[in-house]
Each structure stands twice: as structure tokens, then as C-alpha cells.
Write a structure and sequence with these properties.
alpha+beta; Alpha-Beta Plaits; 114 residues; elongated; 2 helices
Length: 114
């Protein structure tokens, strides 16, 4: 089992979510987050300087069986891509154990994805 975490543009979130659903990833969590990359910029409006380095992003997190890792990554890559700096990141880590509280199922059986 693997945990996939991704940070994507807020404007691409619905496309990423739809792509993951089409890849049979039915359960995921997400949070609105702010981040700062290597782009440094500011805005001056009516003589007041504003720092606009904090960029709105969506942070996604979900756990999949090993057989679903590649199609999950492909779905995110295709849906989140703009070709511009700031498209986001994907992180993959190993999960030792998963247990569904309601049924007591463990391992792959505790996950929703096929």
C-alpha cells in the first residue's frame, strides 16, 4: 500500500478530482493550503505594496493498493499539468498497515479502491 500526497493548483483541483474518480480512486481527502515556491513577486496597488508570494493550493491525500499507484500518479500528472512553474508536487510513501474501523478488515481489504 502507498500513500499519495499531492499539492496542486486550486484552479486544477476539480479536474484532478475527476481524473482520480475515473481512475477508480473513490476516497480521498483534501485541504485548502497556502504555499510559497521560488517565484518572488509583489504587487503595488494605490501606493500600497502587497506580498503575493503566498499561493492558494489544494493538498490531496489518499492511500491506494500498490496496483493503483501508477494510474493514480498518471491521473494527477495529466489533470494538474499546465506547463508553467507552480504546477505542484506528488509525494509517495509506504504504508505498513491499514485497518477499517467499522469491519476490522486490514491490509488491502480495508481500502475502497479495486
Amino acid at each position: 500500500m502507498k500513500k499519495i500526497e499531492a499539492i496542486v493548483r486550486k484552479s486544477k483541483f476539480m479536474e484532478v478530482r475527476k481524473a482520480l474518480h475515473e481512475a477508480d480512486i473513490e476516497f480521498l481527502s483534501w485541504w485548502d493550503v497556502k504555499g510559497q515556491g521560488d517565484a518572488k513577486q509583489g504587487l503595488i496597488f494605490r501606493g500600497i505594496a502587497y506580498d503575493i508570494n503566498a499561493i492558494d493550493r489544494i493538498y490531496l491525500s489518499f492511500v491506494v493498493r500498490d496496483v493503483n499507484v501508477e494510474k493514480s500518479i498518471d491521473a494527477i500528472l495529466k489533470a494538474a499539468y499546465t506547463g508553467e512553474s507552480g504546477d505542484g508536487r506528488i509525494f509517495i510513501s509506504s504504508i505498513e498497515q491499514s485497518i477499517r474501523i467499522r469491519t476490522g478488515d486490514s491490509g488491502d481489504e480495508s481500502l475502497y479502491n479495486k
